[in-house]
Each structure stands twice: as structure tokens, then as C-alpha cells.
Structure to design on (339 residues):
């Protein structure tokens, strides 16, 4: 009765088969029925059930936030089918309540993910972001070696939050590709031998983003983001090894386990020291010792260090003393348009 169904008429064979499937497999099959069949479902479903040996069936409504979202059915082929079902109907109703709670939680997750996906697809479609650039300098000579491209979103959302949302919505790879292409376009007037640093997650690289972008006509430092782990380092190494125009940097070394694993597995040309190690490196012996340890690793493996987040000349002097070759930070230039 809650579905508003009545009795009478005839149903085509293919529709009757769907009704039988609904009895055997679940109420979602009813979505495939035409409106005429829906009006006749009670009478003909009974005939369909009898034809396959089902003597009786019972139903319990599945509700999520008071909205009818499905029907849980139970059927019996026993001679005393009605009595069998009567003894189990309470359990079926309890299960329907549980199913409603599960569906509600799934719906909340789906709606959130779908809303995030729609929002980010709109950002990509309208290019609702800009590219800014920050120089990476030789700490001894002060010469700019390359620029890192960074993204700023029009609504002011911090980049780490926006990219995390894209990852949750399953569109991080598309957003990374869109921002990388925009950065390459914005850097078109740089000398062709000036490298550009672009950030990519392992998932985007394994998904073929670098191959789709192709040779950009300038060297590119591919920064592997720290937050993302991967189990397929062999394929990641192979993919990066096929790109003669790309070198590899691991971002935020010292910030977490993922970056250390990236360093060991990928053997990058550059390791970027996390800002947490750089700040107070001039006054904190523990931080200085940590940087010295990473520099020793770099010397042994042929890796070059880049210190992020340098804000004072004292920090820069301490890093030079510790043997760090390259650096970036507000001391040398804030992220902004290319001049």
C-alpha cells in the first residue's frame, strides 16, 4: 500500500520477468518497470511468485530520514509459508531499520562527494585559479636556478585543502593536470632553459598526466607531494625514467613517513627540506643536526638539498654552513606573478 499499487490487467512477459527478478533479487528491479506495470504489480507479482514456487512473501519499508528509499522483501516456498513469514517478519523489520541507517550514511557520503566533484569540475571548467611562482636560488651565489609554480584559487581556499577535496572526490588528477597546464602557459615567457617545478601526486603520475602534458619545451622538476603514498614504486620509477625533460624532487622531507619512503624508493635528484626543519635551524641544535644528517644522506646518494621556507638571513647563513645548496622562501621572494 505504501507504494500505491493496485490490482488488475495484464503484464508483458518481459515485464513479468522483471517482477520475478524483483522478488528474487531486490526491489531495485522495480525501477525498470513502466508505469502501467507498476499499477498491476500486486496481482501479477503474485502469479509470478507462484510460477517459481514461492507461496508467500512479505515486505518491510526501508526509510532514510523518513523518506521511503526501498523495500526489503522475504519470501517462502514452504507449504506453511504464511506462518514461516509471520515468525520472521519482526527480524525483517529490524533489518530494514538497519538498512535505512546504512543507506542514510552512504547517501550523506555520496552527496558530499558529488557536491565536491561538481564544485571542482566547475573550477576546472572556468579556470577559477591563478598561477604564482616562487624562485629557488643558489644559496652561495644568489642566482635563481628555477621557479616553483603554485596555485591560488579564486575563492581563497588554501591549495592543500582544495587538492585534498579533489582527492576525496576522485578528481585530483584532473585538477593537477589543469593547474600544471596553466602554469606552463603562464611561464611561456621564461627562457627555455629555465626549469619549472610542478607538483604532482603519485596517483596522477601513474594515471598518465605527464605523458598527456608531453614535453613542455623546458626542463621540469617533478615534485612528488609528501601526503600521498603509493604501493607501485616500480611503475612510478619507470614512468619518470621515460621523461628526459623531467627531474624528480621529493617535497617536504622530514614532515612524514611518506616523504622518507619516496626518497628511498625514487632516488630523486632533489630533496626539499620541510619548513619545520628550516625554521629555527639557526638557534636549535636538534634541527641543525637533523639537517646535517639529511645532508650526509644527500652527499652519499648524489642528491641535492633544497631548503623551503627560509625567512631570515640567519636561517640562510646556518643552512649554508650546513652545506645546503639551494633554498626558497620569503627572504628571496614571495609567490607572485613572473616579472
Amino acid at each position: 500500500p505504501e507504494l500505491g499499487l493496485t490490482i488488475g490487467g495484464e503484464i508483458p512477459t518481459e515485464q513479468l520477468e522483471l517482477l520475478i527478478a524483483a522478488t528474487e533479487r531486490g526491489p531495485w528491479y522495480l525501477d525498470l518497470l513502466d508505469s502501467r506495470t507498476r499499477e498491476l504489480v500486486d496481482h501479477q507479482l503474485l502469479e509470478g511468485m507462484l510460477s517459481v514456487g514461492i507461496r508467500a512473501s512479505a515486505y518491510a519499508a526501508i526509510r532514510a530520514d523518513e523518506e521511503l528509499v526501498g523495500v526489503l522483501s522475504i519470501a517462502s516456498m514452504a507449504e506453511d509459508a504464511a506462518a514461516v513469514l509471520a515468525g520472521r517478519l519482526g527480524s525483517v523489520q529490524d533489518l530494514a531499520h538497519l538498512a535505512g541507517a546504512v543507506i542514510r550514511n552512504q547517501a550523506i557520503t555520496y552527496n558530499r562527494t558529488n557536491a565536491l566533484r561538481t564544485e571542482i569540475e566547475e573550477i576546472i571548467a572556468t579556470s577559477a585559479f591563478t598561477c604564482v611562482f616562487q624562485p629557488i636560488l643558489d644559496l652561495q651565489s644568489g642566482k635563481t636556478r628555477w621557479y616553483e609554480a603554485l596555485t591560488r584559487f579564486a575563492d581563497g581556499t588554501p591549495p592543500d585543502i582544495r587538492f585534498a577535496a579533489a582527492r576525496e572526490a576522485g578528481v585530483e588528477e584532473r585538477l593537477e593536470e589543469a593547474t600544471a597546464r596553466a602554469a606552463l602557459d603562464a611561464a611561456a615567457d621564461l627562457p627555455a632553459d629555465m626549469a619549472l617545478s610542478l607538483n604532482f601526486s603519485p596517483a596522477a603520475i601513474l594515471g598518465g598526466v605527464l605523458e598527456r602534458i608531453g614535453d613542455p619545451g623546458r626542463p621540469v622538476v617533478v615534485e612528488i607531494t609528501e601526503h600521498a603514498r603509493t604501493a607501485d614504486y616500480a611503475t612510478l620509477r619507470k614512468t619518470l625514467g621515460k621523461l628526459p625533460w623531467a627531474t624528480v624532487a621529493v617535497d617536504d622531507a622530514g614532515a612524514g613517513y611518506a616523504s622518507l619512503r619516496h626518497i628511498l624508493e625514487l632516488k630523486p635528484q632533489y630533496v626539499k627540506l620541510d619548513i619545520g626543519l628550516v625554521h629555527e635551524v639557526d638557534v636549535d641544535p636538534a634541527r641543525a643536526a637533523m639537517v646535517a644528517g639529511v645532508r650526509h644522506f644527500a652527499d652519499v646518494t648524489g642528491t641535492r638539498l633544497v631548503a623551503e621556507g627560509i625567512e631570515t638571513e640567519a636561517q640562510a647563513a646556518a643552512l649554508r654552513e650546513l652545506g645546503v645548496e639551494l633554498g626558497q622562501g620569503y627572504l628571496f621572494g614571495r609567490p607572485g606573478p613572473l616579472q
